[in-house]
Structure formats: structure tokens, C-alpha cells
Amino acid sequence: MAFLRSRHYREPLILRPLPERQRSRTAGWSLRLAIFAPLLAIVSIAAHRTGYVDTPTFLVLVMCVAAIALAGLGLILVALSSLWAKGTKGGRQVIWALFFSILTLAPFVAATAAWIVFPDQNDVSTDLVDPPLLAKEVQLTRADPKAVVAGHLRDGYASLTGRRYKAPPDAIEETIQKVAEAQGWKLVSRRGRLGADDELFFEFSYLVPVLGIPGSVILRLTDEGDTSFVDMRARTDFVSNDLGWNAHLIETYFKALDFELIGIVEA
Fold it and tell me: I need a surface site. Which of 115, 200, 206, 242 has the fewest CB within 10 A?
């Protein structure tokens, strides 16, 4: 009987507390870097647009933003590994860090794709042999400034050509300037005189949207008697690849100019 009673004996159940989950320090740092990168980008753009930071310094800051965002992304991967293997806390921090990292790196991914797709040039002209020159290029001490400029141009956009209009320069000069101002460009200089010179030059400056990187546009209006021919050149300063921006400027301008001069465009 004693043996039977012993079989039904139950030891008291002792509940031991589970070890407390530790918080992942890597998750916290990944969130800090992920938040700091877009804040630095916003402050850098604002400082550049207001003139407190020059363009070369701004481009360095942009590279710093990319480096910080990539470092944060690396910490996110480490934090995810810790969450999975060790069960540490910090899941929400990692999710928010991933969101801010993607938000910051998306423009850089798009720019990298454009860098691969578009020709590696920052100077685009509708005339590669006799390109219109900026005012500062005309003053070059070399014997033939046009040859110097043409030597740096590349035929990356073969579809870009000038426009011929069935009207003399004095009939379309005002429209040329009005369309340029509508694009947000500022007139820098105007060279040549109507009736005295065969070529008129209109030089404008522009800023790349958001980033505020400066560029120049030069339009050449050639007097052909009863017709006029418009050539155009656009270049962006401080960068070696404009990511297709200047070709887009030329195409957009000519579409707007053709619309304003409907009926006098000669194929």
C-alpha cells in the first residue's frame, strides 16, 4: 500500500522566471543613423538653395548622406540577425530604420540607374561641329574657342537637332525669350544686334530642381533671310554626368517654342 501511495505522489511545481530579453543596441543605432541621414539631406539642400553652402561642399554633403544611409542599412542587417538568433528587443526600431533608409536611398538608386542608362556627359548641343558659345568661352585666349568646345562635346543624343522657322529673327526673338523665361531660366546676356549681325545669342542660367545645382543654356538665332534657325546648348556645372537633364531641357524648350510658333515651323 505504501508503494501505491508513493506512485501518486506529486512534487510541487516550481515556476522559474524566464530570462529577461535584452534590447538590441544595434537596432537603436540603426534607427539613429536612418533618421539622421534624411535630416542631413534636408538641411544640406536648404543651405545650398539659400547660398550658405557652395555647390562643391553640397555635393560632398550629398555623398555623406549616402554613406550614412548605407551604414544605417548595414546596422539594420546586423540588428535583424540579432533579433532572429538571440531574440533581442528592437523590432519596431528596425522597421522604422528600414523605412527611413529606403526613403533616403531611393533617390540614389534612381540616380545610379540614370548614370548607367544616359551618356556620361554634362554638356549637350544640337550642333556638335559649330556649337553656340557661352560669353566666357568667347573670351578664351586660344585661337579657336569653337574648336575647343566642340572637342569636349559628345554625340550622346543624336536625335537632338535645331529648328528652322519660316520667319525672320525679329519676328520670333521676343517669343524665344518669353519661352525661356517660362521655363524658369534667367537671362544672363544677349549678344548681337538685329539687322546688323547674322547671329544673335541668348544666354540663360538655370538651377536643377530641388538640388539647386547651377547650369547654363545658350541659344543661337541665325538669320537666313526669310527663315531663321535656332540652335541650342545646355550644360550643368560641377558634375560630369547630368543624368539626361540637359537633353530633357532642350527637348522641353523646343516643344514649348514649337507650340508658341505653330504654323511657322519648317520641317
Answer: 115
Predicted local confidence at residue 3, as pLDDT = 46
Contact between residue 112 and residue 234 where contact means Cβ atoms under 8 Å apart: no
Query: DSSP letters of 103-160?
Result: HHHHHHHHHHHHHHHS-S-SEEES-SSS----HHHHT-SSS-HHHHHHHH---S-TT-
Place of cell 541665325: 222
Short-list 233, 248, 266, CA closest to 128: 233
CB atoms within 10 A of CB 257: 22
- What's the DSSP call for residue 168? -
Q: What is the CATH number of domain 123-266?
A: 3.30.310.80
- Report in angstroms the alpha-carbon separations of 59 from 7, 45, 52, 53: 81, 10, 14, 10
Q: How far apart are CA 34 and CA 182, in angstroms?
A: 39
Neighbours of 133 (CB within 10 A): 21
Cα–Cα nearest to 227, from 177, 171, 180, 176: 171
